[in-house]
Amino acid sequence: MRKPYMRIPFTGVLAAPTIIPESAKALSGAVAALEEFLVAPSSSSPLSGTQPSTVVLTGAGISVASGLADYRGAKGTYRVNKTYRPIYYHEFLNNNEARKRYWARSFLGWTTLYKAKPNASHFAIKHLNDLGLVRSVITQNVDSFHSQAHPNLHTIELHGYLRSCVCTSCHEELPRDDFQGELARLNPTWAAFLREILASGALDTENPDERRARGIKTNPDGDIDLPGAPYTTFRYPACPRCLASPPPTADGTRATVEVDSDGAWIPTSTAGILKPAVVMFGESIHHTVKAVAEKMVDDADRLLVLGTIKKKPIAIVNIGGVRGEDVFRVDLDPNQHGSQGIRVEIPTDELLPTLVKQLRSSNAQNIHEAPDYIMKIQGASTFKDMLS
After folding, report:
1. Maximum distance among all alpha carbons in the chain?
2. Which residues are annotated as a binding site for Zn(2+)?
3. Which domains does the chain show, CATH number per domain?
4. Is the backbone of residue 126 left (phi > 0), alpha (psi -120 to 50) or beta?
5. Which residues form the signal peptide (predicted)?
6. What is the pLDDT of residues 117-176, one digit of tens each?
7. In what order do the strands lie in the sheet with 54-58?
8. How far is CA 201 from CA 72, 103, 138, 291, in A?
């Protein structure tokens, strides 16, 4: 049987970006260019006083200031951990040992991810929405920070979310923190080791060199690798719904869901496998999620790309190069100041709050803004209702 085709992540170092306009090399110039980008009239809303609609697209770089690892940043996994290889969807489904390895590493990394909070960039996006400048968000991130920082701003989590697990058979969801408790119960030795490394502060440092010195490799999405660890001893639970009522198979018979004396899933089972509620490498984005995200982009006047083609104005804010960005600047007027598009290389947690401050001071209207708070999100967002 032929192996499924896989998209291999690009891990090379991209060329340094060309900053547009030239003045955007400095924070003040970048803020001025972004302000012009956001408020300049668009072809679809040319009337004075009509706010153009902007969709924000975010990637892993926006969450670095929250203490999370990214892929391509200066201290990203692809730079400091050259041997890193993500698990692929077909491996997770078909290989029990691969699942043990995945859940053991996720078990060690979940505490850090669970404790992390949205940063100034996420709240600045909320304020841009309060000011009427941002209509919606499409995020590639799975950390739920957008949903926590601005729950009332329409947000599509393109690649899912780590706050839940989902059954590959019945599609029932289980809160990830509840699942963590089950993993600890089934793996008391691993749980004791996690308490030990947490007490030692080994997971508190964000310096990859310090972590490697302690025998720990930290990767994005709560993945912690311990070279030489006995991953094969790790156990994980079965889907409780499938265990109580095994789902039907394609031929009409009932699937088998079996557990050991402690409740851990065993390989004689043919269903009841829980996976993170994310789109894994090699897995397809749900067609409805993809269609809604594409419509959001098509209907918007402009696109603000943060931390991660030229039919509408685009602003890219990213540290380091972006694949295909040479196409982005082909038709730009070299004398424009931001209305047609910009390219900035300044951290979002520094740039966006400064932009919000500038927009507030230059806006003559009294804008009502709700205070910042973090919404605790469990399970699917309200967007899940659109998938049923």
Report:
1. 71
2. 167, 170, 239, 242
3. 16-68+118-159+285-388 (3.40.50.1220), 81-115+163-278 (no CATH)
4. alpha
5. none
6. 999 999 999 999 999 999 999 999 999 999 999 999 999 999 999 999 999 999 999 999
7. 155-157, 136-139, 54-58, 302-306, 314-317, 341-344
8. 25, 22, 34, 44
Give the mean model confidence (pLDDT) for residues 4-26. Answer: 73
Binding residue ranges: 167, 170, 239, 242
Copy the structure tokens of residue 141.
């991130």
Nearest to 259 by CA among 235, 232, 294, 280: 235
36, 122 contact by CB (below 8 A): no
- Report pTM: 0.85
- Residue 22: what residue type? E
Residue with tokens 């603000």: 304
Instruction: Confirm if 92 and 4 have CB atoms less than 8 A apart.
Output: no
Residue 59: which of 320, 247, 242, 338 has the closest Cα? Answer: 320
Would you state the structure tokens that stand for residue 208, as one six-digit string?
A: 């990859």
Catalytic residue among 122, 159, 287, 337: 159
Active-site residue flag, 159: yes
Give every CB contact of residue 24 below 8 A, 6+ residues apart in sequence.
30, 33, 338, 342, 343, 344
Strand-pairing partners, residue 316, are 305, 343
Residues 181, 164 contacting (CB under 8 angstroms): no
